[in-house]
Every structure is written in C-alpha cells, then in structure tokens.
Amino acid sequence: MKTATLASIALAISVSVANAQTIGVSMTNLDKFRQMLVNGVVSHGKTISGLKLVTENANGDNELQKKQVQQFVADKVDAIIMMLSDGDLGPQMTKIAADAGIPLIYINTTPSNLSDLPDNQVVVASDEKDSGTLETKQVCSLLKGKGRVVVLMGEVFHVAARTRTQDISDVIATPECKGLEIVEQQAAYWSRDYADQQMQEWLAAGVKFDAVIANNDEMALGAIRAMKKADIPMKDVVVGGVDATDDALAAMVAGDLDVTVLQSAVGQGAAAVDAAMKLIKKEKVPRENNVPFELVTPENIAQYLPKSQ
C-alpha cells in the first residue's frame, strides 16, 4: 500500500513537471499603464497551475528588447508575450520567434507586419480607432462643438499615437465638431514630465485654448500639473486622456480631468496569457483579439474605480 502511494506521488510530480509551462514577457517600458499591463499578465498567470512567467523591461531600447526575445528563445520558453517598443520591430521579432517555433503574442501594440503573422502569432490589443474617437467626441460635447484645442501626442512612430491623433482630426471633421480648431499639436512621448514642459512652453508663448486632448493619461496629467502651477482654474479647461489609470481617476475625482478612456490592462493581460496557453497547446487563436475601450467620465466613474486599481 505504501509503495503504491509513493508511486502515485511520483506520477503526480512527473505529470506536474511535464505540464509546467514558461512564458517570457518583454515590455517596452514601464509607465503607469504598462505596469498595470504587466500586473494583468502576472495576476492572471498565477491562476494557471504550473505556469512560470519571466518578465523583462526593455526600457524603450529596441536592441535590448530584441536581445531579450533572443534570450527567451535560447532558454526554450514555451511562448513569448511582448509589448513592442516600436511597431516596425514586428518583422524582426516575428522571424526570431517563428524560426524557433515559439508562439508569440503581441500585446497592446500592433506590429507593422500584422497581415503577415504566422498562425502561432497573434495580437491582443484594443481598437485604437475607438480610443481617440471616444475621447474627442466627449471633449467636443463638453465644448458644445466649438473651441480651441491643443493636442499632446505619444511617439510619432507609435501606432497608437498615430491612430489616436488621426481619430482627433476625424472627429473634428464631422459636422457636430467642425467648430473645434487644433491650435497646437506636439509630441510629449507619453510622458507626464514632457507634457508638463510642453504645456509650460505653450503658456509662455501665450497660446490660448479651451481643451487639451492627450493621447494618454500621463500626458494629460502633465498638462494639468503645468496649468495648476500657472494658476489656471481647471474648471475653465476641458482635459482628456486615455488609459483610466489610478492617477487619472484620482484627478477626475478631484475635478481636474474631464474624460479618459479605459484601456483594460487587466483584460489585455489576461487575454494575452490565455492566447499563449492555447497556442502552446496548438489550438487556433484569431490573429486579432480585441479588448474594447470604454468611456469614463465623472458621471460614471464610480463603476470604474475598482477596475483600475
């Protein structure tokens, strides 16, 4: 009886080891939203028995991120989840993973070679046409279709920055919002500090505006910080961002931020892990996996506070 029990334990351990999987996770950088994204991946990963996650931060360095992926391949991970530092890196990353036969899940940032991805490579993201569109339509509504707008963009080579900025122009071109005018538009690289600096420059130059539309919350918060330092009443300026980070929601509760758009880091993280596990098992996964954006305003913020923590 004792021998049988020991044999059962040995078999259980053997099965557990055989089923253990390792996923390498490479992030371009770790600002507020990207940290939430990593947290979403890790927290969901913890719910899967035997799964090991190895996370790396490329600090915005394209070459470093490439080396991280090459190391994952050398370590024989079972799948790779990565947020690209540049969508144009997609073809290189795809080749590295494809040559090794390792499933690759692009999270949040769509690679430039989307249409050419092999069957074991997919994208988990949110449709950027919705983010900037939801944000700008709400700003337009608050301004009643008329006003001067300044725009803060992410990196110009980043797909999300380009799309969200185009969304702004597309909304302003509609009959309901044609009274809006973009008076300044500059890149602030997704950064609170750069946005603060850019806003200070606009204020020093005497730029007049009624609204700030930022490609993300960090830049919106930087603009708010600069305006508050200049004693500009926040009730006089409409400010919008994207991501619904905890800091952004706190700013909305305080009455400083007027609109943000939830890009569910938890949802994207969980979907990326689930996609990786399916691909490891040779199951089919759609090439594009969309996690919807959701408009967040002072009127509905209560339902979003727990989701962004």
Query: How would a crystallographer describe the biggest sheet?
Result: 6 strands, parallel
Mean pLDDT: 91
What's the CATH H-level homologous superfamily of the largest domain?
Response regulator
CATH fold topology of the largest domain: Rossmann fold
In the CATH classification, which architecture of the largest domain applies? 3-Layer(aba) Sandwich
Order of helices and strands: HEHEHEHEEHEHEHEHEHEHEE
The SS-based structural class is alpha/beta
Distance between the termini: 51 Å
| Tally of separate domains | 2
Tell me the radius of gyration. 22 Å
Domain Periplasmic binding protein: 23-284
Pfam family, one: Peripla_BP_4
Signal peptide: 1-20
Protein name: Rhizopine-binding protein
Q: What is the gist of this entry?
A:
The chain is α/β, with parallel strands linked by helices and 309 residues long.
